[in-house]
Design a protein that fits this description.
This protein is 30% helix and 23% strand. By secondary structure, the chain is of the alpha+beta class. The chain has one domain (16-240): Immunoglobulins (Immunoglobulin-like, Sandwich), CATH 2.60.40.10.
Length: 243
């Protein structure tokens, strides 16, 4: 067996075992969400900054709660973005649009956002232009540490909302299932967070984040498995603090 492939296979098994631990950790949570994206187009190098340990090695680092290893999807031109903070400090938010696979341009101005410990949410502000269907973007969260800024990126594309059936939902679980099954992470997670408050993930949100962790397991060898392993561990720790 090729040594490089064998090493990747071993690491992938370790990642799978780690996610199995996440499943056992929240086995009592109702299985509302089924976020199992089939189309996992790998993210570009712009997302490689994700996975940094953050300002403190003792706490959970800044963690974007969105697909990072692959390009997420939304049907909204003003999606809700969410991330986890283990300390309350101001973050810098930026949004970029891909002009080509290798070039990007910033959309709107840098926004300073005060945060709280736990889950933080940001609906794309009204002073930013509406996003364009068919375009790919990445949103960035940065915080200042003693040595250097910590930066995390997550890419997503805006799909045509007309391709989805317009439905009236009888409950939050029903809407979460619909969006998750259609691979719309941002809508599904926004719905999940409606059932909680005060920076908590909640049981429904934890179920969805479990599915996110499973989806982050890489399918190819062109990834930094150490970073992905650490990201899944961080997500597991966030899930454990859901209540």
């Amino acid at each position: 067996m090729n040594h490089q492939y064998f090493g990747f296979w071993q690491n992938s098994r370790r990642l799978t075992s780690l996610v199995v631990g996440v499943v056992f950790l929240i086995s009592a949570i109702p299985a509302y969400a089924e976020f199992k994206p089939r189309d996992r187009k790998p993210a570009s190098g712009y997302s490689s900054a994700g996975g940094s340990r953050g300002c403190s090695s003792s706490g959970i680092p800044l963690t974007q709660l969105a697909p990072v290893t692959f390009i997420g999807k939304t049907a909204s031109t003003r999606p809700m973005l969410a991330w986890y903070m283990s300390s309350s400090q101001t973050v810098r938010f930026r949004l970029f649009e891909f002009d080509s696979p290798k070039t990007v341009k910033q959309i709107g101005k840098v926004k300073e956002i005060p945060t709280t410990v736990g889950i933080n949410k940001l609906k794309l502000p009204a002073d930013y232009p509406e996003l364009t269907v068919g375009k790919t973007y990445f949103w960035q969260i940065a915080i200042d540490c003693e040595a250097r800024p910590i930066v995390s990126n997550a890419e997503f594309t805006v799909i045509n909302p007309q391709s989805l059936t317009k439905k009236r939902f009888a409950s939050i679980p029903e809407s979460i299932n619909y969006y998750a099954e259609n691979e719309l992470w941002y809508e599904a997670f926004e719905e999940a967070l409606k059932a909680t408050s005060n920076g908590k993930l909640g049981e429904t949100g934890a179920t969805l984040v479990q599915e996110l962790a499973q989806s982050e397991i890489p399918t190819g060898s062109e990834v930094d498995l150490k970073i992905i392993k650490q990201r899944i561990e961080d997500i597991q720790r966030i899930i454990s603090q859901r209540i």
